[in-house]
Design brief:
about 375 residues; Alpha-Beta Plaits; 8-stranded mixed β-sheet; A/G_cyclase
Length: about 375
């Protein structure tokens, strides 16, 4: 499930506690109350001490004020960097950083000092690290908790404590994997976001009449959505663990199929996945494989799938533009177990014998007026091979 948390760039403050007046009146009327700090449960102290020793490099002996002084920047600039990287928001005088933390801050600042990046861009890159690693570690911890519950038969509190005990043992292997995979993913992204861009834009001209709203956007992509049918009803009837397993299975199957088809899973939004591919043909193969896989999986409900070929804007790890919006609208029009495409996507696929396109009645779509969708079906296409 998607988790929402405060933006690291947004300060979070709380008023100091006030001693109640002797006349019995409320001094905090109209004011936000300070949320008390969570109290550690018995047995957690030693586990957290072990965790800190295994994960945090060096004691937290440096305050933000001291960090700013040593880095030669203002306290405000130090606060901006630490929030971007996802560090906890604490008073400037509280000792919370280690020498390794200071080295991380300095690495960001060095890009600015050398003139490689301006300050805003450097902070944006820092925020990408902070936000992506936050999602990654939440995913990893929850996976460990789920494993402890299903494999070891532990209760939820026991599983979470066991996960804390496990983390120091797995951090080094995961760090090695992250370093290699980061460079590999960067190489792949450079190819699709720079080297092959012109070929995609040239291909996107097919079927255009010059009036499309996405014409100025810099990337051509096949954009697809797949969402589970009747998810809201299912979420009301399933217990927490069953729902979690269903969502996890859906995302796992979708991610495998998208990767096998040469596409990219942009994000998961609860019961829905957003993906893209570099060509309409690759997008069509993925869309059909998603629809067929979900229909054949006895543990999952069927899925509605859509695909639209057009131009998009890629920012902050997400994609934007009319093509994305149209694909989203088409998903709501699709019947369970089917794939819908728009007219331009149908035109791009019409000469390919691997696909069959069945025109559907025109529909009025909010924000787009009359849309002429087509049902996408397998022709001579070979199914994607997944494990």
């Amino acid at each position: 499930m998607t988790r929402h948390r405060p933006d690291p760039a947004t300060p979070v403050t709380a008023p100091l506690p006030v001693v109640p007046p002797s006349d019995g009146s409320r001094p905090d009327a109209g004011r936000p109350r300070r949320t008390p700090a969570p109290v550690a449960q018995p047995g957690w102290t030693s586990a957290m001490r072990t965790l800190d020793a295994g994960l945090v490099a060096g004691p937290p002996a440096i305050s933000r004020r001291e960090a700013a002084r040593r880095l030669g920047i203002t306290a405000g600039a130090a606060r901006r960097i630490s929030r971007a990287l996802g560090y906890p928001d604490v008073p400037d005088g509280e000792t919370v950083f280690s020498e390794e933390d200071l080295n991380a801050f300095d690495a960001v600042l060095q890009l600015v000092r050398e003139g490689t990046l301006n300050e805003d861009t450097a902070v944006s890159l820092a925020r990408s690290v902070g936000q992506m690693t936050d999602r990654m570690v939440v995913w990893q911890i929850e996976a460990l908790v789920e494993d402890q519950i299903s494999s070891e038969g532990r209760t939820d509190p026991e599983a979470r404590r066991a996960a804390v005990d496990l983390l120091p043992q797995i951090i080094s292997p995961l760090e090695k994997v992250m370093q290699v995979v980061y460079r590999r993913q960067l190489n792949n992204a450079v190819q699709r976001l720079t080297v092959r861009v012109e070929a995609g834009l040239a291909a996107s001209e097919q079927g255009r009449d010059g009036s499309e709203d996405d014409a100025p956007l810099p990337l051509a992509r096949a954009v697809g959505f797949a969402d589970m049918v009747s998810y809201t009803t299912l979420s009301r009837t399933m217990d927490e663990r069953t729902l979690a397993r269903t969502v996890q299975r859906f995302e796992s199957r979708a991610a495998e199929i998208i990767a096998a088809g040469g596409g990219w899973l942009v994000k998961t939004i609860g019961d829905e996945v957003l993906f893209n591919a570099e060509t309409p043909e690759a997008g069509a193969e993925i869309a059909l494989a998603l629809s067929e896989a979900m229909a054949a999986d006895t543990e999952l409900p069927s899925a509605r799938v859509s695909l639209a070929w057009g131009r998009v804007l890629s920012r902050l790890g997400d994609i934007y533009g009319p093509t994305v919006n149209l694909a989203s609208r088409l998903t709501s029009l699709a019947d369970p177990g089917t794939v819908l495409v728009d007219a331009m996507t149908a035109a791009a696929l019409s000469e390919d014998e691997r696909f069959v396109l069945v025109p559907q009645p025109p529909r009025i779509v909010r924000g787009f007026g009359e849309v002429r969708p087509s049902l996408l079906m397998n022709g001579a296409a070979q199914p994607l091979i997944t494990d």
